């Protein structure tokens, strides 16, 4: 569906997430016919680890086409009828589908609040030659039952250098900041990596990140599975990385992990019925980065397939550091401030950090938490990049550098960042009795219903009180304060939806409950007007300091 114009106000921090521009290429190349390379492509095809809790898994591009309608993007108006419905994949590579390039906008009406297109004129164009066409997918598009394919094409730089470019297709990109139903979301998502060859043998893999120049990792330094390079797909954004853990690329903050391993035989692109289509895969938005992207097609130039620019590969956590460490005495900070403690959880992938006045005070003056990205390591020393994601109380420097040195059975910590320095000694955390159980989930359900009613009333005070932890997390990621973020959200909710939210309830049978935590999907909301995940989003509530709050 066409993207909401209100999303434009969030684009400042998200537009780099899914743009496919090629900034400053040193070298570009286009695909060559498959030919004799067809037997070699499966040999170097990557194995892809999909992230845990990935909602939009890979799918067949043909299945996406069969569930979509074909439209043409006029900048000033919207055609009431599609160019084709249903769409024949084989006709996308031909001139069978035609549409006039120019159109004048008519007058909007209550039934058609956007400008409808009238009086088409200009030259007729076809999707095999014009990029103005786009495939408009339904909400909730899903893969078919067949195993999803991986696609490949062959590039050649010279007599000795060649590459296989492997393309992955997902039905939807879903990179949402915590605590808001808006984010960098769009239909259709093409991702790719390239295996560089010298004299027919692999030497490196090129990664095409979001908002960053392409970079490569030598073949020998990658993880391998049965001789194939291992690639990690980021949750929601599907950006490809060479390792697990947190990754910062441009304006995005991606997470990769070992969820499900995608192991499939690749298929040659030039054998696909739709190969030759030059339009977009997904609805178009006025906001850069929120539109369905272009996909592979004959002659498409790709920048830096053969780059030797090295990717930043996270260091490995040495033996003996893994575990939970915390201070017994407060951190010594300059400039001086109220005493506080520090705790880190090291496992090499999702290293966590927490600062708190004390570990037992129910109303702390300082309570912040975040992640630590390992940047360098030896057997006796770690360097980590710290990023604070949640500020429950007080204020912490958002980014800094933490170093940990072995000192017998303890770790000596030093910190620098934001004009602040600190030092402390951390000890392995001793097991403690479990915390008392959280109250009954119905209290959390009622709390969430109060949040929905406040959304419908545009009661910013109540909304920001209940969603405080999640909104603070989003603010730390660059999305502005809660009052600003949710006022944008109010603009994206229709008057009919607002009226429905004022009396909405939650079907407890449709939520997921664990101790102190409730997962509420959009489909659990019962209202006079139905809501999809694209309208409202999914939410997580957690019991914190005697009350239920939205944390994600």
What's the story with the biggest beta sheet? 8 strands, antiparallel, barrel
Which term fits the overall shape? globular
Structural class: mainly beta
Strand order of the largest sheet: 22-24-25-26-27-28-29-30
Overall helicity:
10-25%
Ranges where pLDDT stays below 50 over 5 or more residues in a row are 1-17, 21-25, 177-182
Count of beta strands: 36
Strand content: 35-45%
Question: So how many helices?
Answer: 9
Radius of gyration: 25 Å
Span between termini: 25 Å
Mean of the pLDDT scores? 85
Blueprint (SSEs and pairs):
Elements: H1 11-14, E1 28-29, E2 31-32, H2 41-44, E3 47-50, H3 61-66, E4 69-72, E5 99-105, E6 117-125, E7 133-136, E8 150-156, E9 161-175, E10 184-198, E11 201-207, E12 215-218, E13 224-225, E14 228-233, E15 240-241, E16 245-249, E17 252-256, E18 260-262, E19 266-268, E20 280-281, E21 302-303, E22 323-327, E23 332-334, E24 341-346, E25 351-356, E26 367-377, E27 381-393, E28 399-407, E29 410-417, E30 420-428, H4 441-457, H5 460-466, H6 468-479, H7 482-492, H8 495-501, E31 505-506, E32 512-514, E33 517-520, E34 525-526, H9 533-536, E35 539-544, E36 547-550
Parallel strand pairs: 3-14, 7-20, 8-19
Antiparallel strand pairs: 1-21, 2-8, 3-18, 4-7, 5-6, 8-9, 9-10, 10-11, 11-12, 13-14, 14-15, 16-17, 22-24, 22-30, 23-30, 24-25, 25-26, 26-27, 27-28, 28-29, 29-30, 31-34, 32-33, 33-35, 35-36
